[in-house]
Specification:
Helix content of chain A: 10-25%
Largest interface: A-B, 14 and 18 residues
Mean pLDDT of chain A: 88
Shape of chain A: globular
Strand content of chain B: 35-45%
Order of helices and strands of chain B: HEEEEEEHEEEEEE
Strand order of the largest sheet of chain A: 6-7-11-10-9-8
Number of strands of chain A: 11
Oligomer: heterodimer
Structural class of chain A: alpha+beta
Low-confidence stretches of chain A: none
Mean pLDDT of chain B: 83
Distance between the termini of chain A: 17 Å
Strand content of chain A: over 45%
Low-confidence stretches of chain B: 1-5, 196-202
Largest sheet of chain B: 12 strands, antiparallel
Number of helices of chain B: 2
Number of strands of chain B: 12
Shape of chain B: globular
Radius of gyration of chain A: 17 Å
């Protein structure tokens, strides 16, 4: 089964409306049915539907700290819906994509604060920190008990991307 | 929802033109209709008949149709039908429900003659299409002196032999946009075309 994936993210000085228009035009030119949702000032979602395969490519747009945050997402629309919450709750994400035991999200916190918040949430869910790695100044990897893995990457000074994976039983 | 969609797309198949159950496998034609496109293709033949695919979308490539149908036809009978609506997973209409969606009209006598309606068949003449110029014969249905429908019939266009359909009073036109003979099955590829119990949609 394909998982919902946050493929990439970036910030831009371009307006949210301009970014939405660019994706809408590009995907329509490629022949995909496209929908545009949101006020296109503070938030918006542009989706291109691959109806033969039952998948969707989307950009989730948020205005944050004077910039436009762009999250590129791919999802499988025909996958079975999630039956129960398996990951520790995540509060106030800018965007979050979740499927079964995998979550990708972006939170409006600096890297250190995001790391502390996620470790608290996982600890409250019964996991313990086994090892922490700083692969570079912008990336931290938390290896937790039961094979769970949390990766945090600083998008900028105030924004952090989070990838969380709980190993199957 | 399915019934509403079928009613919405029914006008694209002119009643004068029966389902092309004797088409050659591989033949396909795409029509442009008010800025949108639909394609009909003969994709396979089996013991029960011919598999036709119909796709509808707003881009001529139809990479991601908004609706698609896969029909197993024999004569005017549809014995299997698979629907894919929007981004939903394709589903097969249960055989017991096919009659509701594809009713077979009982044999009727000739329709009553309305003297105010006449059919006029014109001479073969060039007709420009997006695929190039073809030779087509106009067939007009007239109410007194008004043309209410004009069909351009062309043997070179596969499946329906239809180059263009016009309803002049409405400013409506549907014309052949592209065609060929290399169609492959591409609708509901997760659903096998072989007729056995495992091919049924859960």
């Amino acid at each position: 089964m394909m998982l919902a994936l946050l493929l990439s993210y970036f910030t831009t000085a371009d307006s949210l409306k301009a970014v939405a228009a660019r994706y809408r035009h590009e995907w329509r030119e490629q022949g995909w049915p496209v929908t545009v949702e949101g006020d296109l000032v503070n938030e918006g979602v542009v989706s291109a539907f691959h109806t033969r395969e039952g998948t969707v490519d989307a950009v989730v747009l948020r205005r944050h700290a004077g910039k436009t945050l762009v999250f590129v997402v791919h999802d499988d629309l025909w996958a079975e819906p999630q039956k129960e919450e398996l990951l520790p709750p995540l509060e106030n994400p800018l965007v979050a994509v979740e499927r079964e035991r995998h979550r990708t999200a972006v939170v409006p916190l600096p890297l250190a604060a995001a790391r502390d918040a996620r470790l608290r949430a996982w600890t409250a869910a019964g996991f313990t920190l086994a090892r922490e790695t700083r692969t570079d100044p912008k990336t931290r990897v938390l290896e937790l008990s039961k094979g769970a893995l949390v990766t945090l990457i600083a998008v900028d000074d105030q924004t952090t991307a989070v990838d969380e994976l709980e190993s199957p039983p | 929802v399915i019934a509403a969609l079928l009613l919405a797309v029914a006008p694209v198949l002119p009643p004068e033109l029966p389902l092309p159950s004797h088409a050659k496998v591989g033949e396909w034609v795409t029509y442009r209709l008010e800025g949108r496109y639909w394609r009909i293709a003969a994709v396979a033949h089996d013991a029960e008949g011919l598999w036709l695919e119909l796709e509808f979308g707003d881009h001529p490539a139809l990479k991601a149709p908004m609706a698609a149908f896969k029909l197993l036809v024999s004569g005017d009978r549809v014995s299997r039908a698979i629907l894919a609506l929007g981004a939903d997973a394709p589903r097969e209409i249960p055989p017991a429900d096919l009659q509701r969606f594809f009713p077979r009209d009982p044999p009727r006598g000739p329709p009553p003659v309305d003297p105010s309606i006449a059919v006029k068949t014109g001479r073969l003449q060039p007709l420009l299409t997006s695929h190039g110029t073809v030779t087509a014969r106009p067939v007009e249905v007239r109410l007194r002196t008004t043309v209410i429908k004009r069909l351009w019939l062309c043997d070179a266009i596969p499946l329906l032999g239809l180059a263009k359909l016009e309803l002049p009073a409405l400013g409506y036109a549907m014309e052949a946009y592209d065609w060929g003979s290399d169609a492959q099955p591409r609708v509901a590829s997760r659903i096998p075309m072989e007729h056995n119990e495992t091919s049924r949609i859960p």
